[in-house]
Amino acid sequence: xxxxxxxxxxxxxxxxxxxxxxxxxxxxxxxxxxxxxxxxxxxxxxxxxxxxxxxxxxxxxxxxxxxxxxxxxxxxxxxxxxxxxxxxxxxxxxxxxxxxxxxxxxxxxxxxxxxxxxxxxxxxxxxxxxxxxxxxxxxxxxxxxxxxxxxxxxxxxxxxxxxxxxxxxxxxxxxxxxxxxxxxxxxxxxxxxxxxxxxxxxxxxxxxxxxxxxxxxxxxxxxxxxxxxxxxxxxxxxxxxxxxxxxxxxx
Length: 251
Ligand SMILES: [Fe+2]
Hints:
Layout: E1 2-6, H1 24-35, E2 42-46, H2 57-68, E3 74-77, H3 84-91, E4 97-98, E5 101-102, E6 104-108, E7 111-115, H4 125-137, E8 142-146, H5 157-162, H6 168-176, E9 181-186, E10 193-197, E11 200-204, E12 225-233, E13 238-246
Helix pairs in contact: 2-3
The structure holds fe (ii) ion (FE2).
């Protein structure tokens, strides 16, 4: 099974310019054009669909149209720049909203996929309880978790200091206590990282907007590259790689 993960696309309302003077509709479209002819089975969009805090169904509808053009199944989860209810409404996830949070599990080709809502910068106690129960009751030995925020210290001075997931240790401890393997695919940090702690493997995927230089505490743009992740899952092997392309010129 081959999956493409795209994250932190930060699309504005029509004609809205980003503070970085980057046309994010164009950068996202470049990635869509790049993957269109790639061999993959599913696409997963891991949050921060909206540019800032303007949540508009027009943004989600525009993204939906782009995703539909790929003619492949896809899943979308919210980030901190999203409204989970509005996102659920547009993408048809009404039955997956529980107490304002959009989370669910899905068995794909015999593998257990978990979609977590960390959009309020925290994973709710309800989700902790739900996840713990799923893991405890499952016959699976490995789980694939998709969530916007990495549940650990990543090693980005700016993001770790200013925008980390709250109560991330509680989430990690929940996974560490189980004798199972977890592969967590995230975004939010606008960089590429892999963090491995015992049975928990966290992959941070770069944005299609811009990358943040992890070496500085102030927010500095690292380069002019935008990226996405490929994940290949087979019986005993998981391969993953990040591909980059050059961002289009500023608008
Ligand atoms: Fe984010």
